[in-house]
Structures are given as structure tokens and as C-alpha cells.
TrEMBL record:
GTP binds at residues 237-242, 256-262, 281-284. Keywords: Cytoplasm, GTP-binding, Hydrolase, Magnesium, Metal-binding, Nucleotide-binding, Potassium, tRNA processing. One of its GO terms (cellular component) is cytosol. It is found in: Cytoplasm. This is tRNA modification GTPase MnmE. Belongs to the TRAFAC class TrmE-Era-EngA-EngB-Septin-like GTPase superfamily. TrmE GTPase family. Its cofactor is K(+).
Amino acid sequence: MINESTSTPIQTEDTIVALATANGAGAIAVIRLSGPQAIQIVHTVFKGKNLLKQASHTLHFGFIADGEVVLDEVVVSLFIAPKSYTKENVVEISCHGSPYIIQSIIKLLMVKGARAAKPGEFTLRAFLNGQLDLSQAEAVADLIASDSKASHQIAMQQLRGGFSNQLQVLRDQLIHFASLIELELDFGEEDVEFANRDQLKSLILEINKVIFELVRSFELGNVIKQGVNTVIAGRPNAGKSTLLNALLNEDRAIISPIPGTTRDTIEEILNINGVNFRLIDTAGIREATDAIEAIGVQKTMDKISTSALLVYVFDVNELSEAELKSDIESLQRPGIPTLAIANKIDLPVKRSITFGSSEAIKYLEISAKEKQHIDELKQLIYDTAIQGRLTGEETVITNIRHLEALQRTQESLERVLYGMENPVTSDFLAMDIKQALYYLGEITGTVTTDDLLENIFSRFCIGK
Ligand code: GDP
């Protein structure tokens, strides 16, 4: 039978405490405790109502005192197990946000029996107690880290169950087949087939389809989480820095009429329609005239290779069409969409460029200095990078751990399919199905190892 190992020597008998709000002084700070003794411990230092006799989800005004010394005036919130974030008894103490008060209260609670929480330990307990599956617990960390509408939306989707529910249903069906095949093994030499091979095949194809979409979504999910790397390149004086400023609406990059001023790269975040774009202003791509600039040129080429979008800017009055085409040819990288942006259209003398938009290269005329067509450019950047892939409904994976588990599931399922087409014995088939189940289970946390949990939760902040 398939073993669902959730063995974890992680202690949940004890009561943990940590500051839940950000470090430093603030109007109010929240200190959180979770564990069987949470209410009892606070009760021993609380001057006010008897906390042991209060109902869940109630607030109580009073004082925290160390013997006769009053430390602060506080409001205590009670959450009695299992109706709390961790499914344990949880107490939240809202105190005044002085680092001294916070430290004194936490120290006092530790003297009374609480232990300092490790990073992510509250969420770990929520996971161990079945409140969240593993991918949802990871979504909590993503939610805290989200810095744009799109990354927030994806984290919320995952927190609500997102793709893990879908995978769980398919996994349960696969478990059913695994059991039937194991039954066949019990019959040894007899030629019996309990598991209908056609049904098994169509289930695997269905799972593969779901996994394929999820794996594909990672590319988008990852750029949204990290910000879409967008390189702004062009010859010196084309107006890259001016454009960057126009896009960001401020004067951060140095603008200068001397060619080759932007020697190193400058990165800025531009939010378009809720997605963060990481704009990278590069050094000029003209033939390097000195060593420093040569390094800059190499950097431009490296940056383009790892970006999601190339915005090539040129001075419409300076560049011939042949030069434009050869520049773009030398900069373009396969699979990275390119925008050809004709700048300085405010100037009277114009060369006529008959550069038509194509699949791979889109063309737009702007004036960075006079801020003409900047909004159109923003929309073009968004549309080209996102390509209608972000509708708000789709499931997007952003986590490299999920990607790897999905890819391994795919490999195992491919082996099962191969085994069904070829004279492979049922025990090999059973083994490959088990492998697939193992990797699928890793995503939701049905199958976990201590290392995996340690790895995930140590990345959380303390107090979460
Ligand atoms: P970079 O070397 O590509 O970063 O170019 P800069 O942004 O430093 O611009 C070089 C020069 O071109 C500066 O004097 C800018 O004021 C000027 N410039 C940039 N964009 C425009 C534009 O749209 N119209 C005009 N007339 N001048 C521009």
C-alpha cells in the first residue's frame, strides 16, 4: 500500500511566543503565543478578568505585570483551540509598540513557560495541525512578500487552495489504481488485471495535461513574483536614460549629452497594470572605445540573455534603417520579444523609417523628452510581456519547489505510460506510480520529510 509518511519530530507540545508585528517602535505591537499553555501563561501575568474563564474570540483590556511592576496596558485576544490560525490555543497581546515594552513582555512570558518561536513556526503548526496544506503555507510567505497587485493575486489564489485541490483529486484517483495494481501483484503468477489499463491511461493523460499547464505557468509566475526583467538598450544618446525617467516620472538616471555616460546598469521598478517590471538601463552598445565601456557592453549582452523583454531605443534622426536592423539583429536573443522604439519624434528633421511591426519585433514612435506616447509604450510593454496570460482566473505556480516536483511527477508518469505500452511487469508499473504519487504528495505536503519542512519554514520571518 502507499505510505503517507508525515513523520515529524517537531515539538508542538510546548507553547511558543514571538512578536508578530514588525520590529522597531510603532503605535501598537502584537505579541503572539500558540500552544496548549498559551492562555494559562498569559493568565499568570495579566491583571484584569480571569482569562481561563473567557470564551474564544473575545478581547480583554488589562495590564501585564511582572509581580508588582506594571509593564504595559494591553488588550488580549483569545482564540481557543481548534478555532485559531494554528488550531492550538492562541493569545495575541496588543501592547504599546516600544521595543523595551515588547522585549520585557516576551521575556516575562518566557520566564512563565513559553519558548521563543522559530521562523515560520506558527505557520508550521498550522500545517502540522491540518489547517493549511504545504503549498498554502508557502503562499502565506508569498503573500507577506507580495509587492504588486499581480503577485498578491497569485499568492491569494494559492492560499485559497488553488492548484493543490485539483492535484489532490487526481492523486486520490491514482492511489486507487496503485492499490489495484498492488492487488494484482498479490496474485503472483496468475494472469489477472484488476486495474483497467485504458482507464489508467486516460487518468495519466489527464494528470499530465494539468501538470503541463502548471509547468508552463511557472515562467509567468516567476516573472511576476520577481518582476519582469526588461532591458532598455540602444546606442549612446538614443535617449535611454530620458526614457527611463519618463517611464518612472522622475529624474533618477543621469541624463547627459555626452555619449556613453550610463556606464553601469541602473535598475528601477515600474508597475504597469499591477505587474512589476524591472527596468534595466544599460550602457551604450556602440563599439567600445575604452575598457570600462567594454565591460558595460558585455553587461548589456548578458542582461538581455536573462531578460523577458528587450526595449531597443534609437534616435529616429540619427540611425539609418540598415543600422537599426543590424543593431537589432546583434542584440536580439531567441524567444525574447523585442520592441523597436523610435525616439525624438518631437524634432523637426525626420528620417523616414519604414519599419513595420512583426511577430518578433513591435515598433512604436515616441518622444522621451516631451513625454509623447509614453502611456502607449507602457501598454505595449505590458501586452508584449504578459500576452494575455494574466486574467485573474488562472492557476499560476511561482515556486521552484513545486516546479521540480511537477517535473519529476511528469517523468514518473511517462515511465508508467511506457510500461503500459511495453512488456513491463506490474511491479515496475506499481513502482513508477508510487514515485509519481510521492512527488505529487510533496507539493501539498501529504508526503514530507523533516528536511523539506525545515527548508520551507526557515525562510519565513519569526512571528509568522
Ligand atoms: P542615453 O545615452 O541613451 O541614455 O541618452 P540620454 O537619455 O542621456 O539622452 C541623450 C540626449 O538626448 C540628451 O540631451 C536628451 O535630452 C536628449 N533626448 C532624449 N530623448 C529626447 C527626445 O525625445 N527628444 C529630444 N529632442 N531630445 C531627447
